[in-house]
Write a structure and sequence with these properties.
An 8-stranded parallel beta barrel has the order 14-15-18-19-20-21-22-26, surrounded by 5 helices. It has helices at 29-35, 150-164, 214-227, 260-272, 320-332, 348-353, 376-389, 410-426, 437-440, 463-469, 478-481, 496-502, 542-550, 553-560; strands spanning 9-12, 39-40, 47-48, 57-63, 82-92, 95-105, 126-135, 141-144, 169-172, 183-186, 199-203, 207-210, 232-240, 246-252, 277-281, 283-285, 300-302, 336-343, 397-401, 430-434, 452-455, 472-475, 482-483, 507-508, 511-512, 520-527. A hairpin with a 3-residue loop joins strand 11 and strand 12. Residues 1-22 have low confidence and may be disordered. 25% of the residues lie in helices and 24% in strands. The protein contains 14 helices and 26 strands. The chain is globular, with a radius of gyration of 25 Å. The relative contact order is 0.10. The protein is an alpha/beta fold.
Amino acid sequence: MKKRMAALLALCGAMAGPAGGGVPSSLTEEEARARFPLSLSDDGARVQLPALPPGAKLTLIGADLEQVVDARLRVYPPLEDKLVQIDFALRMPGYNGFLTLPIQIPGAGGARGANPKPAVLPAIQEWQGGSGSFIIGARSRLAAEEPALRDVLQTAAQLLEEALGFPLEQAIAPRGACRPGDIFLTLQTQDKAMGGEGCRGEIADVITLEANTETGLIWGLQTLAQLARGHALPRGCFRDYPRYPVRGLVFDIGRRPVPLEALREVVRQLSRHKMNDLHLHLNDNAVKLDAFQDVWEAYSAFRLESNVEGLTARDFSYTKAEFLELTRYAKSLGVKIVPEIDVPSHALAMTKARRDLALAQRGKNAEMLDLNNKDTLPFVQGIFEEYLSDGTFEGAVVHMGADEYAAKHSRAFRRFSNDMIDFLQARGKTVRMWGSLTGIGGRGKIHAEGVQMNLWNNGWAEPKAMYDQGFSLINTNDEALYIVPDAGYYHEWLDLADIEKNWQPNLFGGVRLPAGSPRVLGAAFALWNDMIETQPRQTPTIDDLLERIVAPLPVIAPKLW
């Protein structure tokens, strides 16, 4: 999987070679790229750095395809020629900033047949064509040697039956027992460079899928499921893997009830496109609270069963068992459920349950918890602890909200954020939060190590500043990636033509960060249901919402994979 944390390598050029002659007083990135080209070692096993002028410092950040060029610049020969972009920080007179240097890595060669790379979404990263076709028939079997893969075999059977129209027998059997027409899955692979989500496949007399993890096998199976719709698969070999580790959707189910079966369908659609992250925004409230004479009559909801009296939404909620079942169902398809409890703002459901903890008793600030009240932190942590201790939040990542709090209380907000980060990390969770630190302002360092941040608006969180502070970043830019039906201030449907032409996961509202950095995690588009108070509760319909989610997947998924 993309972006393993790597030691930064400081590489200083001490001698002036052909590239190190007279240096202009200032260089553009394009000029620096032309002046300092990368090359391969004679044996093709490593990327070699250019000669630099005296005093220049080139620091490696990482490659956008670390499955081809790793964090030590070692090369893993791909099946086909691959263009790899390697990011550095360059400091020298006339230049101080990021520098992206491209290098073409030649394919491994070997016998090739006539079969071109098959068309799937997202496209296979590497392909070496064979000759002829593999036919999946009613006598084909799904097999795996490792008993631990029984659940993956079951997932494989479901995916392929949907594609083929008939079921396949499942078997725990060694590779040598496979007969022509079978499909064999294994976690025994020598290709460790594929990481946690990569898959190597061979389509010959037997189809063999190898991966380092079950998730890698699931993505390989999704590729086969697309190819299998015609029952005849082109013979050949493939090596497939993502560019970014976070490929997701933020879904506001706090403001709008969404049935579990609809969420299961969202999971299925994400998985088909190898999108692996479903961030569920579990609580929220009406947007324009200042318009309410009695703010406590405004709509709010907390969607999970809770032990806190008065907290769980009365109109629609999920039991803990239902939420855990959804988490495990998603995991079986390679998708992580990321639960978000949004605090200390967007928390009207909580301040209704504990009005003594509200920042105000009227207007917008009624949705904010009072962070200067000594009882607020224990109350909030108690809500999270309930789901952590009973296993409802089974996944590795938990979102703590931290969005759009009152700027005049910035010191309390920063203290609260650190307390929550420490609390969740002490319980073994990876913390995710919204980017609000620029907008809220104030002083006081936030504990950024290992913390993931959704960057949704550059005014609320300036991307380069958040990168420099050490956060791991998810592109959730509102201008490009927000869908808010009927609101008029964001997209009804995403502008897919603009995304296709202009958007990249490492372009944060016009600010470009290095795609090869282990802290540039990927992206998530978002569907918000802001207009809960101004439209009938069932408009748009659930089908309308699902259409808005599914439509962007063929455009966004390939940019992340």
